[in-house]
Amino acid sequence: MSVIMITKDNCPQCNKLKMFLKLALNNKYEKDILIVNRETNTKEYEELTSKYQVLTLPAMIAGDEVLTKTEPSNVVNFLEKHIGKK
Questions:
Q1: First and final CA of the chain: distance in angstroms?
Q2: Which among 26, 2, 27, 5 is positioned nearest to 14, based on CA atoms?
Q3: Domain range annotation of the chain
Q4: Quick one: residue 10, left, alpha or beta (phi over 0 = left, psi -120 to 50 = alpha)?
């Protein structure tokens, strides 16, 4: 996994990002993104939000870089930088 996505249930912005990844990007990064959900991966979620000082969701993490402004253009640039696959 190159990128971690931190998310939670009942989060409109999280759902919007998931739909963008699935529909607009045709799931091409599906195997490259590890999704950590607050409700199902509580311990890992808490460790990541603490380590990276994440205060807003969704967030994407690659190496030491954290993306919290998840507008489509930012997400595409982040994924291309850390994963590739234009």
A1: 17
A2: 5
A3: 3-82
A4: left
Let me know: does 7 contact 36? Beta carbons within 8 Å: yes
9-25 pLDDT per residue, tens: 999 999 999 999 999 99
Q: Which fold has domain 3-82?
A: Glutaredoxin (3.40.30)
pLDDT per residue as tens digits for the range 43-68: 999 999 999 999 999 999 999 999 99
| pTM given for the model | 0.93
Long-range contacts of 43-47 (CB under 8 A, 24+ apart): 45/6, 45/8
Please say whether the beta carbons of 18 and 29 come within 8 A. no
Helices in the chain by DSSP H: which ranges? 12-19, 42-51, 72-82
